[in-house]
Structure to design on (228 residues):
């Protein structure tokens, strides 16, 4: 049973435009959500996070939106750059140990 | 560079063998997490240690074990290896991992294990 879902395995966007990556979750106990970016043969790199008490968090070109009622979060990248091309993972934390449950990832390709 | 180091980067071994993966957390981080990324299962949590003690277990097989040493580095031991154990193994660290719910995990570069 996938508790964190990224239903789009891939996304292509033109350079300079907005990239929107989506993530859905089913477990109401998740209270902290993170986005990681991953290049091949490297570990996931932390991008941005949001706690369940907020609905938006912004850091430079990256904004994460959380809709708790819909159990949905999204990552907006504006403007998109070719260097943003990577696999993006959505992750959610719960419990006292804070272990992460990951989505299956979305491959973002930003076309020059 | 996340500050988390993992060795070795690559490991090739045979079925039935035993291997040890090593992780050094970021300076000052007390929590270490181990994750497995396989083609069919994605990134899955295996086990967490906090300041030398096991805190949580996920989908970790009985053939696998881990420990965290007084200097806070951690080792993941995989024994009686099977073909299906071939995967990327990531270590992550965080400063607390004790329910501070905005505690962020930072990942190492991973160890690619190939079982032939």
């Amino acid at each position: 049973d996938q508790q964190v879902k990224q239903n789009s395995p891939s996304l292509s966007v033109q350079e300079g435009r907005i990239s929107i990556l989506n993530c859905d979750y089913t477990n109401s106990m998740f209270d902290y959500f993170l986005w990681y970016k991953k290049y091949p043969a490297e570990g996931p790199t932390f991008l941005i996070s949001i706690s369940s008490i907020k609905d938006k968090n912004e850091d430079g070109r990256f904004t994460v939106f959380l809709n708790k009622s819909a159990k949905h979060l999204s990552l907006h990248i504006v403007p998109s750059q070719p260097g943003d091309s990577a696999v993006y993972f959505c992750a959610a934390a719960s419990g006292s140990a804070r272990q992460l449950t990951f989505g299956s990832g979305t491959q973002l390709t930003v076309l020059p | 560079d996340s500050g988390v180091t993992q060795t070795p980067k690559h490991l090739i071994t045979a079925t039935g063998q035993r291997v040890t993966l090593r992780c050094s957390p970021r300076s000052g981080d007390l929590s270490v997490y181990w994750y497995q990324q396989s083609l069919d299962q994605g990134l899955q949590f295996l086990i967490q240690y906090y300041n030398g003690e096991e805190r949580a277990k996920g989908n970790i097989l009985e053939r696998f074990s881990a420990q965290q040493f007084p200097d806070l580095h951690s080792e993941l031991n995989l024994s009686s290896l099977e073909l299906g154990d071939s995967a990327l193994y990531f270590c992550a660290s965080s400063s607390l991992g004790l329910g501070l719910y905005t505690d962020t995990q930072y990942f190492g570069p991973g160890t690619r294990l190939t079982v032939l």
In short: The interface with chain B takes residues 31-32, 34, 36, 41-46, 49, 51, 89, 91, 93, 95-105 of chain A (CB under 8 Å). Chain A has a mean pLDDT of 93.
